[in-house]
Amino acid sequence: MTADRPAAQPMKSLDDALTQLLDYATIRDGAEQVATFDADGRVLAQDLVSALHVPPQDNSSMDGYALRCADLTDLAQTLPVSQRIPAGSAGTPLAAMSVARIFTGAPIPLGADAVVMQEDCDVLPDGAVRIKVQPKPGQWIRRAGEDVTRGAVVLAKGARLTPAELGLAASIGMNFLTVARRPRVALFSTGDELVMPGAVAPQDMPPGAIYNSNRFFLKALLKRLGCEVSDLGIVPDQRDATIAALRQAAEHHDVILTSGGVSVGEEDHIKPAVASLGQLDLWQIAIKPGKPFAYGHVADAHFIGLPGNPVSGFVTFLLLVRPFLLKLQGATQLAPRSVAVRADFSWPRADKRREFLRVKRNPTDGLDLFANQSSGVLTSAVWGDGLVDNPSGATIAPGDVVRFIPFSELLA
Ligand code: AMP
Ligand code: MG
Fold this sequence. Notes:
The chain is of the alpha/beta class. Helices cover 19% and strands 28% of the residues. It has 8 helices and 27 strands. The chain has helices at residues 14-24, 163-171, 214-224, 239-251, 270-277, 310-328, 379-383, 407-410; strands at residues 31-35, 48-49, 59-60, 64-67, 78-79, 81-85, 99-102, 114-117, 121-123, 129-131, 141-142, 153-155, 176-180, 184-190, 194-195, 210-211, 228-235, 255-259, 279-284, 287-288, 292-298, 301-306, 339-343, 354-361, 366-369, 386-390, 401-406. The longest helix is centred in the C-terminal third of the chain and has 19 residues, at 310-328. The chain is elongated. The model has no long low-confidence stretch (mean pLDDT 95). Bound molecules: adenosine monophosphate and magnesium ion (MG).
């Protein structure tokens, strides 16, 4: 090694990088109350304990007739209808040797032990009912508490709320929920080559210019993760402008997220700018696509710098920034769940880095590979519906079983 060349940084494994990053992800303050209607995507900051049974009482799962099975000794018998119980009303104890007309969701009257669906009954001209099939005690009755029992924790602190969780919370009477406050994230892109769509028409793009695509997917990803995003736009590749942008961003944000400029070329100004205001570590993470990643601080704000190549930025966000932002909100499920799936492609050249290949499930339950795995080809992430997590040094032959992480695990 020559003296004027810096020593190559040892590469960090993804697992080590993630562990270290999650250690830094401590939330500073606060939970807030939001209407259950508005809580989709948020992280619960309280255990939700049910104050009642769901359903609250035994009720009918059919339109039909409630009866006491023991009253029916012979199918030739007819039983008069002694009351009518639609959903929303309560009924009275069932008179002996009678049935109650009952509808789906209506409470079972005291004394009844089964419901006969109306299709299994004949209603005679005098209004009495003949039951055609001998009922079994308990049939077509939904039991009180079969969904939720009183006192049960239906959702634990740290649960990520999705539409089903909102419905469950509502079913125990919660119209407001205590959730972690939204992380405030300042987002900016670096790169003098970047042009905003709409600012210059495609046919007028000057040589060397490209549209800023990262800004769009990063903003959308941040919002999906419950963040409040301040979009600070494009910062030119100049030290002073980068410092000014960072200083402004640090003021009111929990996290500063940038894309581009984290390599070590002399046009990469993020490292010296962050270092002059706070502290920065440049990590070389042994993943492909990805590799350069920066973590540091500016004042009290976390700083995260993603690589500029779109697929690198996208994948690095999903694997590292996503769990970081979820942990900031106190979420408990951070790791995406992978499944074992058959590869229907070959990947003959092993890489020393752990690879995340863009693939798509095919109709025979195998995985197809997008032909161009370059870190600049965003089409791969659109064509694909997930990533194969391929260990370092591993090749793949058709028929091999690989670890597949669906985008549905990573984009929620
Ligand atoms: P950098 O990390 O700044 O060296 O950029 C690496 C590659 O990603 C270069 O080809 C950049 O032009 C490209 N790039 C950087 N930022 C963006 C962006 N916001 N949108 C699209 N491509 C970008
Ligand atoms: Mg750049």
